[in-house]
Amino acid sequence: GKEKWPRGDEKTWKDAIRGPDTDTTSITKSVVNHVQTSLARQAYNLDTSGAYQAAALSVRDNLILNWNDTQLQYTRKAPKRAYYLSLEFLMGRTLDNAMLNLGLKDNYKESVDKLGFNMEDLLEQERDAALGNGGLGRLAACYLDSSASQELPVWGYGLRYRYGIFQQLISPEGQQLEAPDPWLEMQNPWELPRLDVNYEIRFYGQAERLNDGTPRAHWTGGQEVLAVAYDVMIPGCYTKSTNNLRLWESKPKRGFDLNSFNAGNYEGAVGESNSAFAITSVLYPNDQTTFGKELRLKQQYFWTAASLADMIRRFKNLGKPITDIPDYIAIQLNDTHPTLVIPELMRILVDEEDLDWDVAWKITTNTVFYTNHTVLPEALEKWPVPLMEHLLPRHMQIIFDINMYALSHFLQTVERKFPNDRDRLARMSLIEEGYPQQVRMAHLACIGSKKVNGVAELHSDLVRTTILKDFVELEGISKFSNVTNGITPRRWLDQCNPELSALISKTLKVDKSVWLKDLDRLEGLLPFTEDAAFREEWAAVKQHNKERLAAHVKATLGLDINTHAMFDVQIKRLHEYKRQTLNILGVIHRYITLKAMSPEERKKVNPRVVFFAGKAAPGYYIAKITIRLIVNVANIINVDPDTKDLLSLYFLPDYSVSLAEILIPTSDISQHISTAGTEASGTSNMKFCLNGGLLVGTVDGANIEIAESVGEENVFFFGHLTPAVEDLRHEHRYHPVPLEQKCPALARVFEKISSGAFGDAGVYEPLLATIRTGDYYLITEDFDSYIQALAMVDEAYLDRTEWVKKSIRTTARMGKFSSDRCIMEYADSYWNIEPCPVGK
Ligand code: NBY
To answer: Is the CB–ligand 1 distance for residue 482 below 6 Å?
Structure first.
C-alpha cells in the first residue's frame, strides 16, 4: 500500500530526499563535500589518504541508500532469509569492488582525476579487512558478493576482531615474524556502528533443571557481556540489492563494577571490563588445527548467541508462531565453529519459549545446515567437557540430552541390527571418551542439521565414507550432499584483471554487466582460440600483468623480476598437507640439474620464476622451517651467475587478498599439489584458471572438477590417487625403505641441503626428518612424478601458440566455478529461499 509519512509535509520530504550520485558532476560535489565536512579538511592541503577517505565516504553514501531500500524491501515482503554464520570473512579491500558493483568506477575515476588524484593511488591507501585465515574465510566473502548479486535475502554474521590475521614479516635469515594487524587504527568508512542494536550474553553461572515434568532449566549467575552490532554493506553487482554483514563487538555490560570500585579494588574492576573487551580482540590465526582455548570457545558462543538473538528478534516482529521459524530462517554453519547455535536454539525454544523437547528439536533440525571444510583429523573441533560445563553449563546439559534423545531411536535400531556393536555406539556418540571427555562438534553439527555438505565432489564423498559414515547409515544418504565451491568473478576477474575483462567484453561483444553474472558466457571465447590476433592480445594482457607485479615488487621490496620468464606460483597457507616442501625440493632439484648442464644445454632451457607466498600459523614449527628453506634457497640461486637468468625464486611476505589480486593474473602455471584426499576443495585453483593460468596439481579437491570442465589435456596432473594413500602410509610405517633407494633424485636434493649449500643444515633437519621417517604427506612417493609433470610443463610452454590456446580454453570453460552458481544451489536445494529484488 501507500507509505504513510510520519510527520510534516510529504512534498517537502520528497523534494529533500536525495538519490544516489550517479554522474561525474554530482560525484565530484559529494567527494568535495566529504572533504569539507566529514573530514573537516581544506581542499588545498588534501593528501592521498584524505582523498581516499573522501571518495570512500561518497561511495558509502550510495551504498547506504541502496542498503536502506533493500532492507525496507525485506521488511515489507518478509521473505524467508538465510544467515551465513562464519567466524571468518576475508573481505580484502572494499572501495574498488564497491565502485565496480555500482557500475560507477569510470565516473569516480574521472572525478578523482579532475580533483588532481590518481585512482590507483587512492585504492592503495585502503587496508585489507583480513578477518580470516584462508580459503574458508575468503569463501564466505565470495558468497556474500554472490548473494547480493543474485538479489537473495542473505545476511552474514561474524565477529568484529580488533586485530585481523597477523602481519607477516620475514627476517633476513628467513624467519617468519608476526606483528599485529591494527586494521581499525584508521577510520573505517565501510562499517556502520549500531550501538542501539545490542544483546546481553551470559557466561559461566549455574544451570538448574526444573524437574517439573518439562525439560526446562534456569541458567543464572556468571558473567554478562554486551554484544554490539557493526554493519558492513555488501553491494550486489549491477543491482540495487545491498545486503548486510553484521559483525559483533564485545564490551562490558557496565563499564566498571561499582562494588569493587568502591571497595578500592580499581584493578579488579577494570580487569572485569578488560575480559569483556578481550572476546573480540583477535582472530585466531590457526587454520586446520584446533587448540581448545577457553577464549576461542567464548568467541564462538558470544557470536552465535548474539546472532541467534538478533534473528529471533527479527522473526518475532513478523508476529508468526514460534514453530514457523524454519519457514522464515535458514542458518548456514561455515564449518563447525558456529555449532553452538544448535544447543543455543534448543535452549531458547525449551527454556524461554517453553516448547516440548521434540518440537524444539524438529524446529532446530529444520533450520540449520552444516558445511564441512576438512577431513583432516587434527582439524576436527573437539571441546573438553569440563571446559564446556564451566563456561556454558546449560549448553552442556542440552548436548548430553541431544546425545540421549536424538540418537536413541537409532541406537536402539543399531542395537537390534548389530547386537553388541559397542564400537559403533562409541564412534557415533557426541562425547568422545577419554581424559577429559570431549564434545565432537562435527557430530553435533551433523545431527542438528537438515543437510550436510562438503565443498567438492571428492571431498563430499570422503565426508560420506569416512568421518560421517555412521551418520549416513543413521539418517540416509540424501541428507549428505555436495556443493562444489566457487569464486566471485567480480573480484577475481573484473577487478583484479581489468585488461582481460575488457578484452573479453570486446571479443564477446557483450557488456560485462551480462557475462559477469552469467559466467558460462565465457564459452563464447572458444572460437577465438584460432584467431592469431586475439591470441596475441590475450598473451599481451598476461605480459602486462607480469609487469604490473614486477613494478609492485620493485616498489615494495626493491627486487628486479625477469618478466620474460614463465611465472610459476604457489600461494596459500603454509601447511605440510599442501606440500610447499614438494615445490621447494623440486626447485632445488631444478637448480642441481641446471648447474650440471653445459652452457650450450642451458640455452635451451626455458626461464622460470617461482613465487611463494603464504602465512604459517605462529606455532607451526615445521611450516616455519619450510619458509626458512625457501628464503635461503632464494638467497643462493638468485645470485648464482650460472643459473639466475633461468631460475629465480621469491617468497613474497605478508600474503593477503590484495597481494593475490596482483599475483593471480600473472601466472602461467600455479601449483595445487596437496596429498591426495587432503585438500577439501581449494579455491585459488579456480582463480588462476579463470585468469588463464594452467594448473600443476594432484588429483584432489576441486582440481578434479576443474579438469573435467577445462579438459584434462589442459591440466598437469601427477601423483598417487586418494585410495592409494592409506596403504602407502602403512608401508612407510611398517616397511620403511631408505630414501637413497626409494627416490635417488630426492636423496640428491637432501644431500645438497645437508651439505650446507643453503646455510646451516641443522636448521632444516627437523623438516627433512619428517620426510625421511614417516613421510605422512607422501613427499617421497610423489616426487618423481612431480618432477615429470614439471618437465611436461616446460615442454608444453615451448609451443607458445598452443600454450595460449590452452590458456584461452581454460578461462572459457570456468563458468561452473562462479560463486553465483554455488549460492543458487544453496538457495534452491538447502535454504529454500528466493530472490527478493528491490522495487518490485
Ligand atoms: O576451506 C579450506 C579448505 O582447506 C579448502 O580446501 C577449501 O577450499 C576452503 C573453502 O571451502 N579450509 C580452511 O580455510 N580452513 C580454515 O581456515 C580454518 C580456520 C580455523 C580453524 C579450522 C580451519 N579452526 O579450527 O580454528
So the answer is: no
Residue 805 makes CB contacts below 8 A (sequence gap 6+) with 529, 535
Q: Which of 30-44, 136-150, 479-493, 790-804 has the lowest mean pLDDT?
A: 30-44
Q: How far is the CA of 749 from the centre of ligand 1 (A)?
A: 32
d(CA 333, CA 368): 7
Q: Is 723 exposed, middle or buried (0-12, 13-18, 19+ CB in 10 A)?
A: exposed
Tell me if 485 CB under 6 Å of ligand 1. Answer: yes
Q: What is the DSSP string of 807-825?
A: HHHHHHT-GGGBHHHHHHH
Catalytic residues: 373, 572-573, 578, 683, 687
Of residues 204, 778, 139, 188, the one with CA closest to residue 485:
139
Centroid of chain to Cα 650: 24
Q: What is the 3-state secondary structure (H, E, C) of 108-145?
A: HHHHHHHCCCCHHHHHHHCCCEEECCCHHHHHHHHHHH
Pocket test for ligand 1, best of 131, 298, 372, 373 (most atoms within 8 A of CB): 373
pLDDT of residue 8: 87
Please check whether residue 680 is in contact with residue 484, taking contact to mean a CB–CB distance below 8 angstroms. Answer: no
Say yes or no: CB of residue 286 within 6 Å of ligand 1: yes
Is the Cβ atom of 373 under 6 angstroms away from ligand 1? yes
Residues 245/94, Cβ–Cβ less than 8 Å: no
Of residues 66, 184, 178, 167, the one with CA closest to residue 126:
184
Residue nearest to atom 10 of ligand 1 (CA): 136
Whose C-alpha lies nearest to ligand 1, atom 13? 136
* Joined grid coordinates for residue 131: 578477518
Please report the domains of the chain, with CATH numbers, ordered by start residue. Answer: 78-93+128-166+187-483 (3.40.50.2000), 542-811 (3.40.50.2000)
> How many CB atoms are closer than 10 A to CB 721?
13
- C-alpha of residue 621 to centroid of ligand 1, in Å: 19
Q: What single-letter DSSP state applies at residue 185?
A: S
Closest residue by CA, ligand 1 atom 19: 287
Name 470's bridge partners: none
Our CA angle for 59, 141, 657, nearest 5°, is 85
Q: What is the pLDDT of residues 486-507, one digit of tens each?
A: 999 999 999 999 999 999 999 9
Grid coordinates standing for 654? 605478508
Rounded to an integer, the average pLDDT of 632-643 is 98
Distance 729 CA to ligand 1 centre (A): 24
How close are the terminal C-alpha atoms of the chain, in Å? 13
- Using H for helix, E for strand and C for coil, what is the string for 767-799? HHHHHHCCCCCCHHHHHHHHHHHHHHHHHHHHC
Closest residue by Cα to atom 17, ligand 1, is 287
685 Cβ closer than 6 Å to some ligand 1 atom: no
CB of 381 within 6 A of ligand 1: the answer is yes
Instruction: State the pairing for strand pair 669-672/694-698.
Output: parallel
Q: Is 820 in the pocket of ligand 1 (CB under 6 A)?
A: no
Tell me the per-residue pLDDT of 507-522, one tens digit each, with 9 for 90 and over: 999 999 999 999 999 9
246-290 per-position pLDDT tens digit: 999 999 997 555 566 666 777 776 766 788 999 999 999 998 888
Measuring from atom 18 of ligand 1, which residue has the nearest CA? Answer: 287
ipTM > 0.90, yes or no: yes
What secondary structure letter does DSSP report for 448?
Answer: T
Answer yes or no: is the C-beta of 562 below 6 A from any ligand 1 atom.
Answer: no
Q: Return the bridge partners of 425, or none.
A: none
Alpha helices in 126-220 (DSSP H): 135-149
Cα(717)–Cα(755) distance, integer angstroms? 32
Rounded CA-CA distance 314/759 in Å is 61
